[in-house]
From TrEMBL:
PANTHER family: CELL GROWTH-REGULATING NUCLEOLAR PROTEIN (PTHR13100:SF10), CELL GROWTH-REGULATING NUCLEOLAR PROTEIN LYAR (PTHR13100). The keyword Zinc applies. The keyword DNA-binding does not apply. GO terms for molecular function: DNA binding; zinc ion binding. This is Zinc finger C2H2 LYAR-type domain-containing protein. It holds the Pfam family zf-LYAR. Residues 33-60 form the Zinc finger C2H2 LYAR-type domain.
Length: 252
């Protein structure tokens, strides 16, 4: 929790109580506070963005102090919640009325905003004296922005997954020298004839296989399916050693 000192009357004030302080004791005065930890001064609404400050360990340690990573999951969730509120204030999508904008600005100064609708409405109603109708409007906007962020994250992960599994269609494969018929078996002769008459379309076959799997396909599974098609194209029951090497090379 961030604490401030009122530079007008000298009173110590918790961050959520700053607004109330300037509506009561220092009413009519321009907000002018300083952080009790870092001693930085804030004027008017600048204090709202000051959500975290240096710890006592950092304050009284030497210059080589390295802060530990926070382990409090609730604090991380709360920070994410604050990110949503800031995103709403910065966006022109919601066309906030002055009353709604003021409500979101006040929310920025609170460190423990509930993340469930019922608790949220009770909290802002009791602690911030926000009318129930306005509380519901604020929650609906928060929920819309949260869902938008979740969808963007899902789309990002799906795109990364698809890019990782997509075969390199434009990769150039080095052609092997013509086979010598004197060293071929009967099965190899039939396969060679099939290759010479109609070249196996690697890219087209890969596209067909991938298109049948809209959710993606594991590389090993794709390889097996393509191998079957290649074997069938060569009119053999099993690939020879040389054919297998060629398939491996082209697939890679």
């Amino acid at each position: 929790m961030v604490f401030f000192t009122c530079n007008i009357c000298g009173e110590s004030v918790k961050k959520p109580a700053v607004e109330k302080h300037y509506q009561t004791r220092c009413r009519g005065k321009t907000k002018n506070v300083s952080c009790m930890d870092c001693l930085k001064d804030f004027y008017e609404e600048e204090y709202v963005a000051h959500t975290k400050c240096i710890s006592e360990a950092q304050k009284y340690s030497n210059q080589n102090f390295v802060p530990k990573e926070p382990k409090n999951k609730n604090a991380q969730k709360q920070e994410s919640w604050m990110d949503i509120i800031r995103a709403i204030l910065d966006s022109s999508e919601y066309q906030l009325t002055p009353q709604l904008r003021n409500a979101f600005q006040r929310l920025q100064s609170v460190d423990n905003v509930p993340r469930k609708k019922a608790k949220f409405e009770n909290f802002v109603g009791n602690c911030m004296r926000m009318p129930r109708q306005q509380a519901t409007e604020v929650w609906n906007i928060l929920e819309k922005e949260l869902n938008k962020m979740k969808q963007a994250k899902q789309d990002e992960l799906a795109a990364a997954k698809a890019a990782k599994q997509k075969p390199a269609e434009t990769e150039t494969v080095e052609e092997e020298p013509p086979q010598k018929k004197s060293k071929l078996t009967n099965g190899d002769e039939a396969a060679a004839a099939a290759e010479e008459s109609t070249e196996f379309d690697w890219v087209a076959q890969l596209k067909k296989l991938v298109a049948k799997q809209p959710d993606g396909i594991f590389l090993e599974k794709l390889k097996k399916k393509l191998s079957k098609k290649y074997t069938k194209h060569l009119a053999v029951t099993e690939l020879s050693e040389k054919q297998t090497k060629k398939f491996e090379k082209r697939f890679d």
